[in-house]
Amino acid sequence: MKVLEFAFTAYPVTDMARARAFYEGILGLVPCTVHDSEKGRWTEYELGAGTFCLGQAPGWTPFAEGPSIALEVDDFDASIALLREKGVAFAMEPLETPVCRMASIADPEGNAVLIHKRHPGHH
Which domain holds residue 40? Predict the structure, then answer.
């Protein structure tokens, strides 16, 4: 087996409308696919070469201590200011590492979301 890339990253949600209001209204993501069926609901956002998804299905629930996605932003300081202006709580205040700047917030479902900006020259 040879893994070529990741196909998508998905977060479970219990309230799709509330989750979409956060990701679209606050973070500014634009959905590329919205699918509702008898087995659940699915919303996809294309981000660069990858896809981020919200899914709502029986038995799949948010878990704050689970994996997290790091969203690369164009302007870290402006992004942090916007989140503060919108009243988003920070689980981890902005910090600087040798390779990046990042902060952690939680979506309305409790899933961890990192706001991230690589330093030039780091991938």
Answer: 9-118
Please enumerate in sequence order all residues whose Cβ is within 8 A of that of 47, keeping only pairs 6 or more positions apart, or say none. 29, 71
Instruction: Provide the CATH number for the domain around residue 100.
Output: 3.10.180.10
The structural domain count of the chain equals 1
Q: What is the DSSP string of 35-79?
A: EEETTEEEEEEEETTEEEEEEEBTTB---TTS--EEEE-S-HHHH
In the 8-state DSSP scheme, what is residue 19?
H
Confirm whether 2 is domain-assigned. no
Quote the mean pLDDT of the chain.
93
Q: What is the pLDDT of residues 75-105, one digit of tens each?
A: 999 999 999 999 999 999 999 999 999 999 9
The DSSP bridge pattern shows strands 50-56 and 9-12 to be parallel
Q: Strand 40-47 and strand 90-96: pairing?
A: unpaired
1 lies in some domain: no
